[in-house]
């Protein structure tokens, strides 16, 4: 695995300011996308001319999947999602888009092509992407570890944690995920959350009031 030449860009998308991440090798016009959210026009413009190898989903809440259908159809790329949320892409009740109609239309897309699971290692973009199952915010939440970079969705934020009051959420599971899966990583690990600013594992261990 080589991180040399890897570019990481973030896009704050949709009414909830959901972070979508574009990981690319610009010299080769190849990329993968993590959590393409609602109103994805800035991201769509950025990937013009790029070969998108995959869409990786940390989980399938509506604000993280709003751009899946458009990008998948445009680029012909597969979607990866944990099996615990296999039905969420096809069902607005599960993904939450039916609950908040004021934020947008119900979101329905085809199922994911590939299932994610704990300990899996994906080989995309000449990277080794380690999958950690980190439930609590939602039952199928996963975090993606690429060298010192952790893409954790809505599990751990800068000075906060993910909410657990949505269907399938559970506070005890969230704390287990944070302490047993994330806080065992090196302190210098950079956390790229589903909302808000980047942080590090070490900073959150020292300063996060919720953990």
Automatic annotation (TrEMBL):
Keyword Zinc belongs to the record: yes
UniProt superkingdom: Bacteria
Transmembrane spans: none
Metallo-beta-lactamase domain residues: 17-195
Classification via CDD domains: metallo-hydrolase-like_MBL-fold
Function (record text): Counteracts the endogenous Pycsar antiviral defense system. Phosphodiesterase that enables metal-dependent hydrolysis of host cyclic nucleotide Pycsar defense signals such as cCMP and cUMP.
Catalytic activity, EC: 3.-.-.-
Cofactor(s) annotated in UniProt: Zn(2+)
Reactions accelerated catalytically: 3',5'-cyclic UMP + H2O = UMP + H(+); 3',5'-cyclic CMP + H2O = CMP + H(+)
SMART domains named among the record's database cross-references: Lactamase_B
Keyword list, A-Z: Hydrolase, Metal-binding, Zinc
Protein's recorded name: Metallo-hydrolase
GO molecular function, one term: hydrolase activity
Keyword tRNA-binding: no
Enzymatic class: hydrolase
PANTHER family with a match to the protein in the record: HYDROXYACYLGLUTATHIONE HYDROLASE GLOC (PTHR46233:SF3)
Annotated organism of origin: Paenibacillus konkukensis
A Pfam family: Lactamase_B
